[in-house]
Amino acid sequence: MSRGKPVHVFAEHRRQSGADDIRNHLFNAKNADTFAETSLQVVRLLSERMALVERPFSGILPAELAAMFDGLALDQPLDSFDAALEELDGLYLRDAVYFHHPRYMAHLNCPIACPAVAAELIAAVVNSSVDTWDQSAGATLIEQRLIEWTGRRIGFAGGQADGVFTSGGTQSNLMALLLARDNYCLKYLNGHSVQRLGLPVQASRFRILASRLAHFSLQKAASILGLGADAIVPVDCDPNYGMSSAALQAAIDDCRHMGHIPIAVVATMGTTDFGSIDPIGDLAHICRLEGLWLHADAAYGCGLLVSRKYRDRIAGIEQADSTTVDFHKSFLQPVSCSAFLVKNRAHLACLAYHADYLNPLSQARENTPNLVCKSLQTTRRFDALKLWMSLRVLGPDKLGEAFDAVIDLARDTHRLLERDDDFEVLHQPMLSTLLFRYRPVDVAEPKLLDDLNSAIRKMMMREGQALIAATREGGRCYLKFTLLNPDTTLMDIQTVLDLVRRYGQGWLQARSCEPEALLRLAEAN
Ligand SMILES: Cc1ncc(COP(=O)(O)O)c(C=O)c1O
């Protein structure tokens, strides 16, 4: 078997084709030096850049950054990799939002583990596509093993669990509702196959029930699936912001009373804003009685699958028919790294298509593992590799300890906020998010408090010393900590709260003075 041409043949070829020939820029053995050189340049630049990152964001405004793109001609390449890298530094790296910074506390973006980063390079270089065996080989087996591992962590019994890596929670939730819809039709509408025949006439009456705090990707999925966004019925929460099972039962009864057809319930195992966890055991009981598909959206809460301290908070997740897990939220994995799992692999059948050129039925009969049969995507990145390397190098306990650390930090932050008269905190954290707002004792007017907190968030973004999020609850504006970095300390939190207070006081003072003061404040920030 030939493993490649002798080096002198390549060298000769290079001379003939000239330095600018595209063949000299391909990733292959003869260009190994170029690969090593450019990779090292990137590593060097990133290391230098990281050393300079003192805050999670430079604070640049969209218009300011956009101005730097003026005059760039994509039809005219720069003359070297160095020049392109230097340009990129100015256009992107200098003003990027850095999730690894301990004072990045805005959205569900985690810092990433080094073995996962190294795996990204391998995945990019080998460039497997995990759709068919003949494009991936071992990559398919690695992904499959990780799906089995995740299924066991969830507690899916019976050896029938299966799944696939996806681009994120949005795609996983779409798959969940697709399966719920199609399996309802097969089971309750005389074997109606949506896959072949399209939607049945009853589809406009299908309803999916989810907590009012569930992620908006459910509405998006319902819309894509031809059910309409209004098919998602929001269910009220209990005082801990988990779905109320009594409210769920009432909502199902209401649906049936109105002639609607409930087909599924989504339990959120870690809501985006509150980190609250729906009481899945109670919801599963209702679903069994009502004959409904139960999907667990553990996009955020999946970190508990490797937690030794707090695993019990998602006890009962194994009762779900399907689950979303986002390793890129709570497993220290780079975007994208996510998976969709089902308890019973037979339910994935409605995703399977066979193309003669790619995955003919004969291959299925020969038991050739082709993951494309379970996926919405065809060509698909080997995203499983980073999780694989993280588990092989660090092990699950270390990843779990990182998640435990941020849960503990959220608990301590809650105590800090409760003791501080300048702040109102909305809830006891279940995971690692906290909703709070700056509310000095002498400010009570609701609209003023909204404006104040929304201004604080803007000033924070403009200065970039720390990044936090803002959201609305009960019609009012709140600030939000999303803590995912085990490197963040209570001291960092205190620093951010001091910033919030400083911006807030500045805004209130400026507001009570003259318009020029507001202008000066805006300029300073
Ligand atoms: C609970 C929940 N589900 C789903 C999603 C969507 O995940 P993704 O952004 O990976 O598509 C999110 C995102 O924040 C989420 O918080």
- Work out the radius of gyration: 26 Å
Task: List the helices and strands in order.
Answer: HHHHEHHEHHEHEHEHEEHEHHHEEHEEHH
Bound molecules: pyridoxal-5'-phosphate
If strands are numbered along the chain, what order do they take across the biggest sheet? 2-8-7-6-5-3-4
Strand content: 5-15%
Largest sheet: 7 strands, mixed
The end-to-end distance, rounded to whole angstroms, is 65 Å
Morphology: globular
Low-pLDDT segments, ≥5 res: 1-17
Helix segment count?
18
Supply database-style keywords.
single chain; 525 residues; alpha/beta; seven-stranded mixed β-sheet; five-stranded mixed β-sheet; 18 helices; 12 strands; globular; binds pyridoxal-5'-phosphate
Structure overview:
The chain has 525 residues and is of the alpha/beta class. Helix content is 44%, strand content 12%. It is built from 18 helices and 12 strands. It has helices spanning 7-17, 32-52, 62-67, 81-93, 114-126, 138-154, 169-188, 194-197, 217-224, 245-257, 280-290, 327-330, 361-365, 384-393, 396-419, 446-463, 490-512, 515-524, and strands at residues 104-105, 162-166, 206-211, 232-235, 261-268, 293-298, 322-326, 338-342, 423-425, 433-438, 467-473, 476-482. The strands form 2 sheets. Strands 2-8-7-6-5-3-4 form a 7-stranded mixed beta sheet, with helices on both faces. Strands 1-11-12-10-9 form a 5-stranded mixed beta sheet, covered by helices on one side. Helix 16 crosses helix 17 (490-512). The longest helix has 24 residues, at 396-419. It is globular and about 70 Å long. The relative contact order is 0.12. The structure holds pyridoxal-5'-phosphate. Pyridoxal-5'-phosphate binds at residues 108, 168-170, 173, 215, 217, 268, 272, 297, 299-300, 326, 338. Residues 108, 168-170, 173, 215, 217, 268, 272, 297, 299-300, 326, 338 line the site of pyridoxal-5'-phosphate.
